[in-house]
Amino acid sequence: MSASYLTQLSLLFSNPTRSNGHTVPSTIIRNISALSSQIAYSENIVENITTISTKYAPTTDGTIQGLLYVPDLSFGDSCLETSNQYIPANATRQADLPPTDYILIALVPWIDADCTKSYLASASLDPLHAMLVYRPDDEDGPPPEAGSDLWKLDAQGTWKEKNHFPVYAISSGSGERMMQQLSLYSGKLSEVPFANEINTTYSPNPADYVRVWTQLSVSPEPSPLAIWGLVLIILAVILSVVGGISWTMHYVQNRRRASLRRRVMSGEINLEALGIKRLTVPPEHIQTYPLFTYNYNPPMPSPPNSPSFFRSPAKTSLESISPSSHTQRKHSDRLDYQPTCLICLDVFESKVTIIRELSCGHIFHPECIDQFLSEMSSLCPLCKASMYPRGHCPKITNSMVRRELSTRKLRSRYPLRTDIGNQWRRLATWSYSENQNQSLEGRMSISTAPGTSIHLHKQLGAPVSTRERMQTLIMPIDEANSDDGHPPWKRAARTIFPGL
């Protein structure tokens, strides 16, 4: 405990008397310094106090207080003669104090190491709560710092741990002044300073005492246990806040994942069309798309002056193949002329080729479109309409939720045209280059919708496999739907706080 200031007071004590065989304890009658500072000793030392030893001592409202005295040395101690030149013979000793168990505060001159050890040993036998020391004959200035070699009594400094009371150093002038006052308030009431005024003012008993009372205002040093307790409390608060925020974020993200899963299953959102997740269609769902025999009858040529010469080209006619009844039915003309499978680039043969029609109306070879939908993409190779079945949903992750949310916010700021999905078509191109010259041989034009065409360029001299062509027909999607590519600290942060 470090001391901040020191107060000296003069108190009037009652003398214990015997009544019917019982001893009446001595009590404080008056604080003479508080009532009349002109007739009693009082002093306040606000600075120049050094804490040498911080051993714990009981305090009252941050104050160590007790009667000031000088410890007695044993007879024959070598320090007894040395200290006589600094301690007056009539300085208050324990025998001069009221005969009760009052708390004591010692005042000792720090002459040398041997004398200080003798006073510490003597004071340890008394009901002491603190010791004040000063270096006599020094200049009247601040006492040396606690780490100074002047306060060393042994090489390791173990003497500070052996005492059961703290030790404080005051300046040389303050110590000598306090020792002088202590010698004035050690005798009978009639011998203290201003004895007549005290007797006239308070009318005390001649056997009463006037002694010096010392108060030390201290602030306790933080103990390791207290520091660790504070650290644990702070950590507990931080963990509680972090845990609460993390739980809230996990709860919100769980709700968002459930919402996105529900919208994907209902067909409201297609993750692949948004560029979030590559999807494939289950084989059993692909088989639900009907098979037909390709049938196309080109229109008869009309004379230039005939009105039919200006009509639009005939559309595809498809004959249904029913696996159960093997009956045929006419399919309504829904699309423009589609003479080629866009995946393998083979030309359909009328009334021979078996084709599969998707829900969007585009036709392909069954083996081509089945492999494409089950292994490559759930979107139609031509119009990018979704073939993903309702009621199905991949595993929804937090990264998918974040990307879908950001896409939704972007669309709310910049609304997209509603006809873009119907008019947009992928362009698949195979080019051939030799000697820095582009060759356009083998170019084919397939009309897919009014005003729209897809140009296919076969690479000459280097055949392209069907699977490679499938790769060119799928939408480019950023497959970084996880945090695997992020630094470890960021992955850990998103694990704890999934909303980041």
Structural summary, described in words:
The chain is 28% helix and 20% strand. With 500 residues, it is an alpha+beta fold. The chain folds into two domains: 2-221, no CATH class; 249-495, Zinc/RING finger domain, C3HC4 (zinc finger) (Herpes Virus-1), CATH 3.30.40. The strands form five sheets. Strands 1, 4, 5, 6, 7, 8, 9, 10 and 11 form a nine-stranded mixed beta sheet that branches. Strands 14-13-12-15-16 form a five-stranded antiparallel beta sheet. Helix 7 (224-265) packs across helix 10. The two termini are 47 Å apart. Residues 306-335 and 416-462 have low confidence and may be disordered.
Determine the CATH topology of the largest domain.
Herpes Virus-1
Helicity level? 25-40%
Shape: rod-shaped
Instruction: Provide mean pLDDT, rounded.
Output: 77
- Biggest sheet, open or closed, and with what strands and sense? 9 strands, mixed
Count up the domains: 2
Terminal residue distance: 47 Å
Cα radius of gyration in angstroms: 52 Å
Tally of DSSP β-strands: 20
Please name the fourth-level CATH homologous superfamily of the largest domain: Zinc/RING finger domain, C3HC4 (zinc finger)
Task: Tell me the number of helical segments per DSSP (H or I, 4 or more residues long).
Answer: 13
Subunit arrangement of the protein: single chain
Low-confidence stretches: 306-335, 416-462
CATH class of the largest domain: Alpha Beta
**Based on the structure given, which CATH architecture of the largest domain is correct?**
2-Layer Sandwich
> Which class best fits the helix and strand makeup?
alpha+beta
Q: What amount of the residues lies in strands? A: 15-25%
